[in-house]
Q: What sequence folds into this?
């Protein structure tokens, strides 16, 4: 049996609704977001999930708790799964940032460029990948649900060979799930058919 990691973005938040960048800041789940969390759990009830792990941010924690309660499995927080730190862009509306010349490189590409006081997409990708490898090794040959964030997911997917020139808003709707498989022989994560 392989180690399967089911990655899911948290439910919709107030700031997602108004297209404000959250990064390490937080806003609560909307009623839609709470429904998305419940629907995510329901979609996984036959996947034999044995552990739910989330980012430490409130929106991921709230989504994860809905899932672990519905699936009757243990839950833990992994600090390394936190969203990409968006520095001085955190709390800003996407519509206002779109006019900046570095917008595309910052939020639609994966490079070493970082906004002031922020984390580059490349650094985020490396951090998330390493955290998931650690989780996969810890939960070898088990099925794990990981709740984290859209921008971190966009960065990770680039590393897994699924790069795109779109933003996380466009690529990964709230509640979106992606399955990864882990090969312990070469410590390699890869995309798998859900």
A:
């Amino acid at each position: 049996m392989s180690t399967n990691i089911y990655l899911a973005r948290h439910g919709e938040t107030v700031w997602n609704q108004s297209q404000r960048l959250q990064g390490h800041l937080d806003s609560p789940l909307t009623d839609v977001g709470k429904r998305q969390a419940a629907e995510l759990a329901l979609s996984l009830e036959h996947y034999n999930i044995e552990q739910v792990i989330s980012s430490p941010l409130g929106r991921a924690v709230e989504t994860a708790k809905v899932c672990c309660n519905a699936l009757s499995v243990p839950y833990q927080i992994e600090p390394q799964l936190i969203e990409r730190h968006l520095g001085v862009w955190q709390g800003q509306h996407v519509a206002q940032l779109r006019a900046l010349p570095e917008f595309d490189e910052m939020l639609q590409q994966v490079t070493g460029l970082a906004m002031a006081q922020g984390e580059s997409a490349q650094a985020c990708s490396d951090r998330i990948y390493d955290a998931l490898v650690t989780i996969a090794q810890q939960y070898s040959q088990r099925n794990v649900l990981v709740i984290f964030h859209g921008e971190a997911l966009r960065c990770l997917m680039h590393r897994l060979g699924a790069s795109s020139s779109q933003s996380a808003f466009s690529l990964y709707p709230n509640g979106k799930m992606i399955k990864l498989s882990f090969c312990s022989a070469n410590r390699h994560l890869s995309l798998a058919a859900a």
Notes: The mean pLDDT is 93. The CA atoms of residues 64 and 105 lie 31 Å apart. The longest helix spans residues 121-138. DSSP finds eight helices and six strands in the chain.
